[in-house]
Amino acid sequence: MILTDLHLRNFRNYDDLQVEFSPGINVMIGENAQGKTNLLESIYVLALTKSHRTANDKELIKWQGSDAFISGRVKKTNGTVPLELLFNSKGKKAKVNHLEQAKLSQYIGQLNVILFAPEDLSLVKGAPAMRRRFMDMEFGQMSNKYLYNSGQYRTILKQRNQYLKQLQQRKQTDRIFLQVLSDQLAAYGAEIMVARVNFLQQLEGWAQVIHDEISQGKEKLTFHYASQLTVADDATVESVYEQLLALLTKNESREIELGSTLYGPQRDDLKFLVNDNNVQTYGSQGQQRTTALSVKLAEIDLMKAQTGEYPLLLLDDVLSELDDERQTHLLTAIQDKVQTFLTTTSLSGVARQLIKEPKIFEIEQGILLNED
Ligand SMILES: Nc1ncnc2c1ncn2[C@@H]1O[C@H](COP(=O)(O)OP(=O)(O)OP(=O)(O)O)[C@@H](O)[C@H]1O
């Protein structure tokens, strides 16, 4: 898919911006703090209705402004879809084909993006929450069912944790209601865990090929879904539901004591192994970076396989973090295939040589100086 144009009003440091993009590589160039990342962020928000940088939508509205507006047109194999998003103090409104969507889950998935920022290079090394977020954001874009189950799960988990605290403080005594919540939680939790394992299996296949190429056949990358439950590659939702419910039931008293749910997808993690060794613990920084790059590039292929369309790739200041060899792999993998948006303070070295006909946008203080 291609984002042909974008319109921003009162978004971050942009007053009013109308811009047309190239279907190839779009380069946002400028000094620090001029609005390059803000522009990339607006595309991410247009796709997912929320930012990767903040959980607070109000930060997206231009200071002193009362609302922020983003719109764009997405060209797909079966036609062009206009998307619109409005943020104000009451919340947000999302439109597809000029029709307001009652649920954001109906909107998400129209525009698919993969963001690669320097922080993603710590996907392997960072905290488990980062890898869970990675799974939820990527798989949610590919599957409405995953998105729906995650939303339901989050709501019930919150309710169950509150109820556990009330039981702990003896404000409630009814354990039957806790069992009802456990049952619902186990049902949605099992759906999420099985879907994660299935998606990871596919992602692993793509990532292995890429990692093999980058490491010139020296390294074999494998994934492992780490859970307190046993979730085999061919596990059924029913079997995981039963396991999870049994664990929740068995540990009720401990959970009440702690006032928190101890089992489920919110506690799981993803491990990357290179030649059977955990990259997080034993990998060199280079291996950790190659792994992160392989995973990101694999996502592009997985999304194409799942949705029939290539996603957009957003590269936020990431080239400067990669050595020439990894930059070359990245740029050759995407060229002529994926519409790409990248931010940089200067286009030099390998990137300048490899990127064919980039469309360059010079940005200064939220204003586009020129396009060529
Ligand atoms: N809600 C907002 N309203 C107005 N300006 C904002 C808002 N949020 C951020 N900014 C401004 O946007 C600028 C940062 O822009 P951005 O993060 O896009 O920088 P950048 O060009 O990517 O720079 P770097 O290369 O340092 O990452 C800062 O000057 C900041 O003050």
UniProtKB/TrEMBL annotation:
Location of the protein in the cell: Cytoplasm
RecF/RecN/SMC N-terminal domain mapped to chain residues: 3-345
InterPro entries: DNA-binding_RecF (IPR001238), DNA-binding_RecF_CS (IPR018078), P-loop_NTPase (IPR027417), RecF/RecN/SMC_N (IPR003395), RecF_2 (IPR042174)
GO CC annotations on file: cytoplasm
Signal peptide: none
UniProt GO molecular function: ATP binding; single-stranded DNA binding
Keyword Cytoplasm: yes
Xref: Gene3D superfamilies: P-loop containing nucleotide triphosphate hydrolases, RecF/RecN/SMC, N-terminal domain
Residues at which ATP binds: G30, E31, N32, A33, Q34, G35, K36, T37
PROSITE patterns on file: RECF_1, RECF_2
UniProt xrefs under CDD domains: ABC_RecF
GO biological process, one term: double-strand break repair
Highest taxon listed in the record's lineage: Bacteria
Keywords, sorted A to Z: ATP-binding, Cytoplasm, DNA damage, DNA repair, DNA replication, DNA-binding, Nucleotide-binding, SOS response
Family: Belongs to the RecF family.
Function: The RecF protein is involved in DNA metabolism; it is required for DNA replication and normal SOS inducibility. RecF binds preferentially to single-stranded, linear DNA. It also seems to bind ATP.
Protein name: DNA replication and repair protein RecF
Organism: Paucilactobacillus oligofermentans DSM 15707 = LMG 22743
